[in-house]
Structures are given as structure tokens and as C-alpha cells.
Design a protein that fits this description.
By secondary structure, this protein is mainly α. The protein has helices at about 20-50, 65-75, 75-110, 110-125, 130-140, 145-155, 165-190, 195-205, 210-220, 220-235, 240-245, 255-265, 265-300; strands spanning about 5-10, 10-15, 50-55, 60-65. The chain starts with a strand and ends with a helix.
């Protein structure tokens, strides 16, 4: 029987109940794809990170060791790369939030049709290749680029500034690329707020700023958390933008894992660095879920 009727008090709800064998069959295609293309590569990377390197076979499966993780956390150079990656991601996330929230707040208060056109305009850069957008910033920030040419023309500087291959260039590029991922969740959260709640606060004596601080901002926190999580995770794992705009001067976990794997052929150590990156981003997702659960529990308690 594929459909069951469940009675609750005097009301009856109808819901479709699939017998568990059929439910498993429906999940089988997706589960197969996840196992082959996600779970198996992750487990292989984790298993490889606990084995020694081999100059011929690249991975010596006979030697089990924790040496690669001890090397990463015991060497100040690699700890510095972890710190640099976290700092770049945090700065980019804060910049995206500071720029994105006012824009999202403005968009949430305008006509829905105009809002849709403006959102399409704001997310249109996502239709352009990441590599192309990053190369555009290399042209803009280069010594002979648009920024230096403009400043020289105004007489504000006498020699071109070194903008390219710096952390500043990386933050600028990452902010441009991932700003939309901050903007969309906040817009969605703000537009879901009932306007009558803000009007009620103002009728009770709150001015516009106080109504925003006590009503709008707290209710938009889920969108802020979603945007912060998305941007932080994406910037932590970014490879193309930090490599092209930061060069050899700016090291991140993603570029270091690539370097160890492709350039130095240290596959186990590269796998260990990749798994550290995965753990850091996964920890942020767990924290995000816990914060949301706590907010929901507090809201239900009230």
C-alpha cells in the first residue's frame, strides 16, 4: 500500500508513504553518484594522507604513518599558511558582508519587478568564467593597469603602486567573485520579514534606526549566517584567484596542496593538507548548523 492515512485528533492528514524497499530504490541513483564521486575520493584522500611517500609509486601503501600531519602542524611555515588562509577568508567575508548588507537591505525595500532586474544584474558576473574575471583583475591592478594609470593621471602618486601579487589584490578579487553568495541569502531573509512588524515597532515609539536594530537586523541573522558560511567556505577553498592575483607571495591551503601534489609529487602530504582544509570548512558548517538550531530552540521557547 503506497498511500497511508494518519489521523490526528479529529483531523486526518493524507501523506504518501513509500515502503522502505521502494524508498531505497529511489535513493539508489543519488547514493551511487555520491559514493563514486564524493565519498570514495574523500576516503581515498584520507587514507593516502596516512601513508608514506614513494618516489616511484608516489604512495607507499605499506607504510602507515602520522608524519604528514605532524609535519603540517609542527612546522611554523605551514601553520602560517593556515593562518594566512583563515585571515584572507575572514577579511573577504567581512568585506562582502559590509558591502552586501546595505545593498541587500535596499533591494528588499523596492518594487519586486525592479528588484528582480537588479538582482539579475548583480549576479550576471557569475555567468562569466572565474578565470576570465580573475585575469581582468590582473589587468586592472597591474603596474600599468587602470588603477595606477588613473592615480598617476590625477597626480596622487609618482610611481605605480604594487597592487598585484599582494593580499589586497586577492581580497579584491575574491570579494568581486563571491559577493553574490553573500547578497542572495540576505535578500531572501530580508524579503521574508513581515513589514507590519517594523511598522508596529515604529508605532510603539521606535525610530527607523531602532526598528532596524531591534527588528530587521535580528530577523535577518539566518541570511547573514548563510552568506557568511558560503563566502568563508568558498574563499577558504579558492585556488584560481589567490594563485593568479597573489602569485608566489600569497600562499593558501589550496595552492599549497596543489603545489605539493603536482609540483613536488608529495601526494600523501598534499592529501593531508587537503584534508586539513576540509576539516576547517566542515567545522564552520557544523558551527553554522548549531547556531541555527539554537536560534530555533530559543524562538520556540519564547
Amino acid at each position: 500500500m503506497s498511500v497511508g492515512t494518519i489521523a490526528t485528533g479529529n483531523r486526518s492528514k493524507r501523506r504518501t508513504v513509500f515502503p522502505w524497499p521502494n524508498g531505497l530504490l529511489l535513493l539508489l541513483p543519488l547514493a551511487t553518484i555520491l559514493i563514486i564521486f564524493f565519498i570514495y575520493p574523500l576516503l581515498s584522500m584520507l587514507w593516502a594522507s596516512f601513508h608514506a611517500s614513494d618516489p616511484v609509486e608516489l604512495i607507499d601503501w605499506k607504510v602507515f604513518t602520522f608524519r604528514h600531519y605532524a609535519k603540517f602542524f609542527g612546522d611554523s611555515y605551514y601553520r602560517g599558511i593556515l593562518y594566512s588562509s583563515l585571515r584572507l577568508s575572514l577579511i573577504t567575508t567581512v568585506v562582502c558582508l559590509v558591502i552586501g548588507y546595505p545593498v541587500a537591505y535596499t533591494l528588499s525595500g523596492i518594487n519586486r519587478r525592479v528588484q528582480a532586474y537588479l538582482l539579475l544584474l548583480l549576479i550576471s558576473p557569475l555567468l562569466v568564467s572565474l578565470v576570465i574575471r580573475t585575469y581582468a583583475w590582473t589587468i586592472i591592478l597591474s603596474p600599468n593597469g587602470l588603477v595606477n594609470a588613473f592615480l598617476l593621471q590625477l597626480g596622487l602618486i609618482k610611481t605605480p603602486l604594487r597592487l598585484l601579487w599582494t593580499e589586497t589584490a586577492v581580497v579584491i578579487g575574491l570579494t568581486h567573485i563571491y559577493l553574490a553568495y553573500m547578497l542572495l541569502p540576505i535578500v531572501s531573509s530580508l524579503t521574508s520579514i513581515d513589514p507590519s512588524m517594523v511598522r508596529a515597532a515604529m508605532n510603539l515609539g521606535a525610530n527607523e534606526w531602532k526598528a532596524f536594530r531591534l527588528v530587521t537586523l535580528p530577523l535577518s541573522v539566518p541570511g547573514i549566517l548563510a552568506g557568511v558560511t558560503l563566502v568563508f567556505i568558498l574563499t577558504m577553498s579558492a585556488f584560481v584567484t589567490p594563485t593568479l592575483l597573489g602569485g608566489v607571495r600569497v600562499k593558501t591551503l589550496a595552492s599549497t596542496a596543489y603545489e605539493q601534489t603536482i609540483a613536488f609529487l608529495q601526494w600523501p602530504f598534499g592529501a593531508a593538507i587537503s584534508f586539513v582544509l576540509l576539516l576547517v570548512t566542515g567545522l564552520l558548517v557544523v558551527i553554522y548548523q548549531k547556531v541555527l538550531e539554537r536560534r530555533e530552540w530559543e524562538a520556540s521557547a519564547q
